[in-house]
Amino acid sequence: MGSHSDGTPQSGTVATTGTTAMERFPDPGLPPHRPRLTDVDSKAAKRAERQVVLLFLISILGSILFFIGYFGVRVDGPIYDVTDTSATTALWLQNLLLGLGIALGMFGIGIGIVHWARTLMPDHELVEERHEVRTEEQRAEAQSILTTIYDESGIKRRPLLRNTLIGAAVLAPLPFVGLLKDLGPTNLAVLRQTLWDEGVRLVRDPSGTPIRAADVTLGSTYHVVPENLASIGHNEGYLDEKAKSVVLLMRLDPDTVNVSPEREDWNVDGIFAYSKVCTHVGCPVALYEQQTHHLLCPCHQSTFDLVNECEVIFGPAARPLPQLPITVDADGYLVARSDFQEPVGPTYSQRGTHVEEMQGEAN
Known about the structure:
Radius of gyration: 33 Å
Oligomer: single chain
């Protein structure tokens, strides 16, 4: 047993820096390479290739199913009317084809690529020292490595596998292009005008009953649509008009709310109405935190502050929710003073020359 510099005994069970040479473990190296069945059996390799091709074909079939549901299945009639079996059946079929198409499209190409890599691509282990590619010789070496990878992938030797991969890769993203197209109208001017107008009553959704100002209690919330929405048929754009016109109605303590001078007559004794359409990508803002007076969009967590005219305090939304000016009629019911003073919906619709175009059409 040794001792420390201060004379205390040292057991020797703990190694200290500088007193014992560090033992170096030998490099175990790479384990022996175990060839796969497809490496030694040409029939197994051919079978794996057919499996990958089948997965890519499943992806192509899924993309085709999506387009059949998206463009080929027409939903006519009021989809919320359970007595209209033709409309509900068509809607069910369309949703089935859309969901199944996207699932098969992504599943086929994803599993196909993984199966290809695990069974057909080379799996030799190697270690390369990292170095900077600077000289022309090194660039040529890098090009040679990429060429080798391309050759070892088997794309040249397996044209059917290559062609099905190309077909699946081309078709797979297209369903998402169709879904992105539905985020908003191609004619942005339609967002400038809704069904709200002077004297239009605020009614509950979906019952359609009008709302008296005296019935709106402190802290209560109503999902509201314009009364004249009921006069529009489902084949005449009912859903489009409702999507633009939906409103959240809440009553707050007037002493806790900051109101700008130009909006002093836009509320009724602390009753405020704001668009439910989030200014980020148009999701429905439907979560109201009564204690904090915050409105929350469930899609991307954009948060709006009710006491400060729905300004954005968190999330990706870029502008406040549009406020609907309201008042009461002679019978005590809540009515709109006018339409929204700004377009509803995502902020991207307000960029560039679109604002000028919409203002020109509105005038």
